[in-house]
Amino acid sequence: MAQRAQERGGRFPQAPTQEEWERMSVEERGQVVESLPGEVTWDEMAMPEGDLHSLAKLETRDVLRGFFSRQRRQVYLGTELPVYYPGERRFAPDLLVVRDVETHPRSKWMVSYEGKGLEWVMEVHVGGDRKKDAEYNVERYARLGIPEYFIYDRARERLEAYRLPAPEARRYERIPLEQGRYRSEVLGLEFELAGGKLRLWVGNALLLESHELLEQEQRLREEEVRRRQEAERGREEAERRLAELQAELERLRGAGNRPPQ
């Protein structure tokens, strides 16, 4: 059964259909899950696109991880993870999100095994043919029932966003741009391109990357130290002035108590 799962679909490994999966025993399912590779081949991947590509997805994942961690919500975030939908050719999105699942590290996402499909996907485009992200994946991800799909086109500095209008729909509608932002209902966040970066907002609050949070904390610490130093200098100055006034008062008292010459 595991061997058939690998051979199905020609040259690329493919998960069994849902009907085949349901007919399998627990042992057979385990064999299939184990047999499906946790990597994709060069033939299936786009050519490396450098820092502009890698930083865009890693920075976004960093922001999302921090946000959901503060929300105390279990959300799985994956980058270029092989994904197996039943009876479908595998694919590996630049960034994917699935809510309310275990967050342990994975080498692949098999929908039948996990019991849940992807909920939000982002692809980053830097160079080459845009058709894969902007046309083929728009059709494919909608057909698979992925609720939201975002495309960050760094070459054009443009963001596109799509959403299924209903859970049973299999055709995307564009998410409208509102005041320069695209709202993700799945994530509860808004996305904006600003200053050559993809920025995420929750309401009026800008979500920062880890290094930005550390820099902000460092600035706050330095500001607190500065305020304390200024307060200490002010206290010392006040004490000095008080001592001078007391000394002047003692001098005046002494002069008033001396007998006239």
From TrEMBL:
Domain of life where this protein originates: Bacteria
Biased composition (Basic and acidic residues): 1-10
Domain Putative restriction endonuclease residues, every copy: 19-192
Keywords: Coiled coil, Endonuclease, Hydrolase, Nuclease
One term of GO molecular function: endonuclease activity
InterPro entries: Nuclease_put_TT1808, Restrct_endonuc-II-like, Uma2
Region feature Disordered, mapped onto this chain: 1-26
Signal peptide range: none
Coiled-coil positions: 213-255
Pfam families found in the cross-reference section: Uma2
Protein name, UniProt field: Uma2 family endonuclease
Classification lineage: Bacteria, Pseudomonadati, Myxococcota, Myxococcia, Myxococcales
